[in-house]
Design a protein that fits this description.
- This protein is mostly beta strands.
- It has two helices and 13 strands.
- The strands form four sheets. Strands 1-2-3-4 form a four-stranded antiparallel sheet, with no helix packed on it. The chain has a four-stranded antiparallel sheet with strand order 5-6-9-10, with no helix packed on it.
- The protein is globular.
Length: 191
């Protein structure tokens, strides 16, 4: 599906999130031009920890951020580790570990290069915890929790708020949700 079909076909232009419309988002989508990474078929990226069900985001710097997950498919203990990928060197670098091990979580990059990770599955089940990776300090800070613990959800940054949608929020009897949460960043970040 090309960009025009995404904006004009199948999706209405009615208001989303109190005034934000697809027409308002269109310039952002048009401005985003992906930069392909040069493949290096002879040598895979060095330093990547094996992981599944982790979260990853592209950073404004062009680097890639990965966090959490499980070290193998049948693992029960989620990872606290996080890594940065440097595409110019085709190398992964370890960074400070998260405070809480999590898998099946979501992550979003902020314009300043910091990253917010939220929810997921931990050793005790569904998580509502939220953490901020402060890139300039290589450290994590806990933020206030989500209203509802969830995993397998998505998150999108809109101005100074996160739109969190879908995922698993309950027991096996009612595992999926169509619910959303608006998580305001602003000055009330610290938990």
């Amino acid at each position: 599906m090309n960009q025009r079909n995404f904006l004009d076909g199948g999706l209405s232009r009615r208001s989303l999130l109190g005034g934000l419309t697809l027409a308002a988002v269109a310039p952002v989508l048009r401005a985003a031009t992906p930069r392909p990474l040069a493949p290096r078929a002879t040598s895979p990226a060095r330093g990547l920890m094996p992981r599944v069900q982790h979260a990853g985001v592209a950073l404004p710097s062009g680097w890639v951020f990965l966090s959490g997950g499980y070290p193998f498919l049948d693992a029960e203990q989620a990872l606290t580790s996080a890594q940065l990928y440097d595409p110019s060197q085709d190398e992964w670098h370890r960074i400070a570990p998260m405070r809480t091990g999590r898998a099946r979580h979501a992550a979003v990059a902020l314009p300043n290069g910091d990253v917010v990770v939220l929810g997921g599955m931990g050793s005790g089940g569904l998580l509502s915890s939220v953490e901020l990776f402060i890139a300039g300090r290589n450290e994590w800070r806990s933020l206030r929790p989500l209203r509802i613990p969830r995993a397998d959800h998505c998150v999108v940054l809109i101005d100074d708020a996160l739109l969190i949608a879908g995922g698993v929020t309950g027991s096996m009897m009612a595992p999926l949700t169509a619910g959303t949460e608006i998580y305001r960043l602003g000055g009330r970040q610290a938990a």
